[in-house]
Amino acid sequence: MGVNGVNIESMKRRNRSAILRLVNSDGPISKKDIAARLSLTPAAVTQICGEFMESGLLAEKGFDDEETVRAGRKKVLIDIDPEHAYVYSVNIDPKCTTLAICNLQGEAKICREKQTGSYTRKDAAGSSFAQESSKIKCSKEERTPYDFLREVAAELSDMRKACQIAGERMAGAGVGIVGIVDKKSGRSIRAYGVWKQPVDVADCLGDLLGVPVRVENNVNAFARAEILFGAGRQYENIFLVKWGPGVGGSIVTGGRLYEGSRTKTAELGHFIVQKDGKPCSCGRRGCLETLVCEQALCEAFPGILTRSEGGWEEARLAEVVDLFARSIVNSATILAPDRVILYGKLFANAWLRKRVVAACAAYDEEWDERRVVYSSLAEKESYIGPAAECIMEEIF
């Protein structure tokens, strides 16, 4: 039985994506090495790379001085041109929204922050972007989520012009947001602490910016960044743990983000660690997050983030850290990742981070500072996730 046209085209797309991801992780690299690594024919690699080089996405980056193809002829190395295109990045947290324009390596050319605010007008609850757009713009006190997104789009356009980037060089936009997301429709279903109703984020920003828009949960978006630019370049299986206002997690297996049937996975913060404990935002009681989230930690241990006050019981702090570490080690025992990657505001505190890692190693010496590590992308946490989501979907 022959291979039909649809299958051939699908195979070409997979090969193109595989080549770009290999070059992104291991470049500069020669076409011969690409063919060997991916088990593709030299002719296929030459054709695909030729198309990418013609468009400007790939460029020659010198020669391999250590090895030659034939006597006197060195391998030509190729790599992604990071300035070939740019993407908008929007990271929406309850208090602060970060806006950035990034190149194809996830480096921010410009980055700004704005207050997220509250957008909860009752009569707009559940309305679609098309329905809301037909209404007269409401007053400042009654702004809807779409008014906020209009502000975001306007500021992104100003940032692009300030960087003197032509509109046609913008490949798309990535949006990372807390809570539940429908990736297929680009809808924010429930953004905890931002807005309660579903919001057509992709439709709104896509209409205003004139580019494809990808929407993802912010923790999952950061996992995409680790796959493209961080630990995922070296390891296929990683478990990410975020510690900030809440506790989140993501699983990368076989180099791909694991997504459950209900889009919520690796909810480490909602491990039940206390029977009949404090009520949690998820509706259950005794979740880990009720004890180790930023608010709970600061209330129980005043000044802990700066160690400026003290006066709290060391044994009580050790107990809380122990519960967190135990949850991480138990998860790692089940998932068996190559590395556990830590990030987030509270893990940025080296003193707290070291206590958690030491507590992990006390349970199992395999999970010490060599395998439970702080993310190399932590300083870019505010924007790198949405940028990676867009780059992965629109470029790679």
Structure explained in plain terms:
The protein contains 12 helices and 15 strands. The protein is α/β, with parallel strands linked by helices and 396 residues long. The chain has 3 domains: 5-80, Arc Repressor Mutant, subunit A, CATH 1.10.10; 86-221 and 383-394, Nucleotidyltransferase, domain 5 (2-Layer Sandwich); 233-375, ATPase, nucleotide binding domain (Nucleotidyltransferase, domain 5, 2-Layer Sandwich). It has a 5-stranded mixed beta sheet with strand order 6-5-4-7-10, sandwiched between helices. The protein has helices spanning 5-26, 31-38, 42-55, 129-133, 145-162, 201-209, 218-229, 289-292, 294-300, 314-335, 350-363, 384-394; strands at residues 29-30, 58-70, 73-80, 86-92, 96-102, 108-115, 170-177, 180-182, 187-190, 213-217, 238-243, 247-253, 256-257, 339-343, 372-374. It starts with a helix and ends with a helix. The radius of gyration is 23 Å and the shape is globular.
Any key phrases for this structure?
alpha/beta; Arc Repressor Mutant, subunit A; 3 domains; single chain; 22% strand; 12 helices; 396 residues; 15 strands; Nucleotidyltransferase, domain 5
Number of domains: 3
| Number of helical elements | 12
Q: Termini separation (Å)?
A: 31 Å
CATH architecture tag of the largest domain: 2-Layer Sandwich
Shape: globular
Biggest sheet strand order reads 6-5-4-7-10
Mean pLDDT: 88
Q: Give the % helix.
A: 25-40%
Please state the CA-atom Rg, rounded to the nearest Å: 23 Å
Order of helices and strands: HEHHEEEEEHHEEEHEHEEEHHHEHEH
Largest sheet: 5 strands, mixed
Task: Kindly report the CATH topology of the largest domain.
Answer: Nucleotidyltransferase, domain 5
CATH class of the largest domain: Alpha Beta
* Number of beta-strand segments: 15
Class based on secondary structure composition and strand pairing: alpha/beta
**What's the name of the CATH homologous superfamily of the largest domain?**
ATPase, nucleotide binding domain
Low-confidence stretches: 121-125, 136-140
